[in-house]
């Protein structure tokens, strides 16, 4: 796994051994960042369920002003910190070793607001639903915040019609998909 573009282009990133993480492939990561490239310049990026930190690091490499990485697995937290040092992007990255819902509350207290939120929760556990339900009433998002969920191809998002969110774009791959969500008008 490597950084695809930007300041840290071609640098190899560490990953966690075992099946606890599912690193996003370079091809899917490149497709994702081609889709959001215009929103990255000077943005504040939130990477939930960060794993190795590859998505948030890619955002920093491509011009994001800051990235907050949220991960509660100790080995993954150390991997993110190592990857930030390897890429020399650690000045712009903050790692929160918390579960995602606790991290959202912490970020609310800190008064942080994010332009782009990416989450890659464990598949088919409905964690994205819990996070979206928390985010819809959170002050860490605003009208133009983009929320991207990486999910299994089978994951349904029909519950969003009962929230403040709507899907504005969906990109399907062989086994997973990216759902692009924003606040309803």
Automatic annotation (TrEMBL):
<dbReference type="GO" id="GO:0031167">
    <property type="term" value="P:rRNA methylation"/>
</dbReference>
<dbReference type="InterPro" id="IPR029063">
    <property type="entry name" value="SAM-dependent_MTases_sf"/>
</dbReference>
<dbReference type="GO" id="GO:0003676">
    <property type="term" value="F:nucleic acid binding"/>
</dbReference>
<dbReference type="InterPro" id="IPR002052">
    <property type="entry name" value="DNA_methylase_N6_adenine_CS"/>
</dbReference>
<keyword id="KW-0808">Transferase</keyword>
<dbReference type="GO" id="GO:0008168">
    <property type="term" value="F:methyltransferase activity"/>
</dbReference>
<protein>
    <submittedName>
        <fullName>16S rRNA (Guanine(966)-N(2))-methyltransferase RsmD</fullName>
    </submittedName>
</protein>
<dbReference type="Pfam" id="PF03602">
    <property type="entry name" value="Cons_hypoth95"/>
</dbReference>
<dbReference type="InterPro" id="IPR004398">
    <property type="entry name" value="RNA_MeTrfase_RsmD"/>
</dbReference>
<keyword id="KW-0489">Methyltransferase</keyword>
